[in-house]
Sequence to fold (135 residues):
Amino acid sequence: MQIKDLKPKQGNVDITLDVVDVGETREFQKFGKPGKVATAIGKDETGDIRLTLWNEDIDKVKAGDKVKLSSGYVNEWQGEMQLTTGRMGKLEVVGKAELTKDADSEKGKEAPQEKEGEALDVEEEDIEDPDEEKV
Fold:
């Protein structure tokens, strides 16, 4: 599956992405339970998408990683699609991202990664609980 094929409210998404940026971690309380959330930008040859990272997944993923999302879920927030593990999904780092190279790479230098997107500004009531069942 590729980013161009994703649609809002789509479940059971299996996709491999290059992580080009990971935003700041934000902490929250929901139903009296603490949690953490961060937004990353994932990219493949067809486009890019926001990737919502929850709790322990945040510490696993760094910019420059290649990640595989299994049984993921596409949601929409402020009119923009986002990919998340949701309740049943799994995220694993499977290698290093395939970085785009420019003319500097021909001189033996790797091109710096372009940072895309910025961290979401979310309110507590907008935060999806990864343990809640999707309807």
